[in-house]
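Proteins fold reproducibly. Consider a sample protein:
=====
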Amino acid sequence: MYRQGDVLIVPVEEALVPASTGALPRQPRDARGRLVLALGEVTGHAHAVVGPGELLREPGPFAAAWLRLPEGGRVVHEEHAVIPLPKGWYRVVRQREYTPGAVRVVAD
């Protein structure tokens, strides 16, 4: 299990990836060729993956994303250390916080 800031990246055995994941839309890469896991609303910094693969997102603000890295990759961010990821599937979860009357995704 890996964590970079408010993003949690959990390895998942391929056999446990839901079949419905194949029907999810592929997120396009950003202008720098990265798969952006989370974009900082205040700073504009991004938790992103560099390397071959694809990011599939379930709809909804609290939904998870699925990351497939056939050759491994690296999680990068302007203010955090690089995290190398071995090849495989990952579930990507954004940190949430409770505020009176609501649950929201953490914004940096």
Q: What stands out?
A: The mean pLDDT is 89. Residues 52 and 69 are 6 Å apart (CA to CA). The chain is about 0% helix and 50% strand. The longest strand covers residues 88-94.
